[in-house]
Amino acid sequence: MEDHIFNAILLVISLTFFSIFIWKTKLCKLSKSQYPFPPEIPGGWPVIGHLLQFSGKGNMTLSKKLGFLADKYGPVFSFRLGLPRIVVVSSYDAVRDCLNTNDKVLSDRPPSLAGEYIGYNNAMLFLATYGNYWRKVRKIVIREVLSNSRLEKMKNVRVSEVQMSIKELYSLFSVTRDNLHSVTTGDSFPVKVNLTKWLEKLTLSLIFKLVAGKNYRSLEKGGNEEEEIERFKKALKDFVYIAMELDLWDAFPIPLFKWIDLQGHVKFMKRAFKDIDCVLQKWLDEHVKKREEADDVVAGNEKDFIDVLISNEDFADSYTRETTIKATALSMVLDASDTTSVHSNWVMATLLNHRDVMKKVQEELDREVGRNRWVEESDIKNLVYFQAVVKETLRLYPPVPVLVPRECLEDCVVQGYHIPKGTRLWVNSMKLMRDPKIWSNPDTFDPERFLTSQAGVDVRGQHYEFIPFGSGRRSCPGITYATQVTHLAIAHLLQGFDFSTPSNEPLDMKEGLGMTMRKVNPIEVFITPRLPSVLYKF
């Protein structure tokens, strides 16, 4: 990739004198502000800025790289990736300035190549520009899928999918069938399972049902549809990965870079989009056909989110109706499945490396729920230590360690620095949530902090030291959904099974690259049932 970038840089220098002129003119105009610019890290070149410093792959995640720069240059600093100027913030005061005081001003999204080629030309909710279209789609999503009343109505879907997934785990054991009252570690040998795959399947099953009314398990049983779904799943992961790759067009928005595609990104994105759109178009066609054949489809009786979108007449004119439906469905599937499974995966990995904490959670489950019935959503409010564990994992391993970039709609001031219109904002939430000025022993896994010093801190973006789901207008609308799924799934796992790692070795906690922070290696563990066998026969 670096060879391609060097070649591209030569091309830029020879063909973009106009860009140099724009850049210098802009600097002269902005220098008239009464406030100083945020400090710029050294090493920038004319025109290309700090492109070379951020173009290499390396082994360091973006959040950690930005964190080291913050340690050196302060919690508000800037750099340039080609023409765009980036401002990075990672302190409580700076984040509050950005996501509260200047929330509306900083609510736009910068254009991106991934959003254009995979995200239906940025029609996806989390990529859409701030305006009428974004407001209307977000309102529909919250009202029809993610409101408390709608989530309560869909409670049976969450419960049934979790129970079915637990049943699949239990089916791996060879137990005495005539013993319906007890299963102990003496009755069955431990079975090795890939928890990462189990969690990914569960979160996909849930969101497929909610969005398209699809039974994910039936889609896995062979045939062309299974192949399409596998390509669809891979394309979703490719989207998350490529969205964080530095593309020359993002640095120099010149059509030439799309056409020649030096890095091969456009080709890669087109292939991913084809696999995604194939599935979404099929779902949409099926729903349209069913509605044409049905006589009783009325507003309020829609079975899933695509039905809701088809019924809705209140769309903006920015995109075609078909594009809006597919883009919004993709937003729901990607956001709900990827970040939820990533977070749940980190919760289990962290507990497996802190067996004393896992034991405390299981003891709390036994005390508050018992071993004669399964934990229910109504029990979660009583599992205060378990909730603290989930929060502490979000603090240490946020699914999105650098929040989705924002763009400044007009000039504003952050911590006494002038932020010009068009500047891109990166919020390093992982650095913020490990700030030693706020968190004692910030790199230590300590759930008790959320029962003592940070007991009043929640995940909804109102406490600017803890923003795993963002804050303000562009915060994640699915906070309640994600929390419910994580609590219900992990509580069932910990109540239903005991866990051990191969050779009782701790798991590695290497963080992967991409928009969402995946654990590099999957969690493979041995499990044994810890409840009466009759409870696993849902």
CATH superfamily, by name, is Cytochrome P450
Distance between the ends? 51 Å
Strand-pairing-aware structural class: alpha+beta
CATH topology value: Cytochrome p450
Q: What string, H for helix and E for strand, traces the elements in order?
A: HHHHEEHHHHHEHHHHHHHHHHEEEEHHEE
Level-1 CATH class name: Mainly Alpha
Strand order across the biggest sheet? Answer: 1-2-7-4
Can you characterise this structure?
- The protein is α+β, with helices and mostly antiparallel strands.
- It has a single domain (2-536), classed as Orthogonal Bundle (Cytochrome p450), CATH 1.10.630.10.
- 49% of the residues lie in helices and 7% in strands.
- It has 21 helices and 9 strands.
- The strands form 3 sheets. A 4-stranded mixed sheet has the order 1-2-7-4. It has a 3-stranded antiparallel sheet with strand order 3-9-8. A two-stranded antiparallel sheet has the order 5-6.
- β1 (76-80) and β2 (85-89) form a beta hairpin.
- α9 runs antiparallel to α10.
- The longest helix has 32 residues, at 321-352.
- It is globular, with a radius of gyration of 24 Å.
- The N and C termini lie far apart (51 Å).
